[in-house]
Amino acid sequence: MKILVIGHPDAVLGFSLAGVGGKVATTAEAVNQALDEAQAGKDVGIVLVTQEAAELIPARMEQLKLRSMIPLVVEIPSSAGPQEGQASLGDIVLKAIGIKL
Questions:
Q1: Alpha helix locations (H) across the chain?
Q2: For residue range 37-48, what is the model confidence (pLDDT) as tens digits?
Q3: At CB < 8 A and 24+ separation, what contacts does 8-17 make?
Q4: What is the CA radius of gyration of the chain?
Q5: What is the pTM of this model?
Q6: Distance between start and end Cα atoms, the chain
Q7: Are 70 and 45 in contact (CB under 8 A)?
Q8: pLDDT, tens digit, 9 for 90 and up, residues 12-65
């Protein structure tokens, strides 16, 4: 199973340096299309969606975070860091896949 990052260009580039694939998506249409492709693919196990991208499609993200099983959809903080009360990227990855960054 693969991990896929959807959203801000800097996040996609950063994760690509660690061998994680991604799709740059800066509009609601692009985010929805990338999510549709990720859900249709059988090889994607975890989808990391940047905070900026998630804010473009709040209703769908809420539904996916509550109901998606495979792929597991997880919102990750922006490059500015987590907002007050939001978990750090390391905490999110640890909770999602059990690996401490």
A1: 9-16, 28-40, 51-54, 58-67, 89-97
A2: 999 988 999 899
A3: 8/50, 8/52, 8/53, 8/78, 8/79, 10/79, 11/48, 11/50, 11/76, 11/79, 15/48
A4: 12
A5: 0.78
A6: 19
A7: yes
A8: 998 899 889 999 999 999 999 999 999 998 899 989 999 999 999 999 998 887
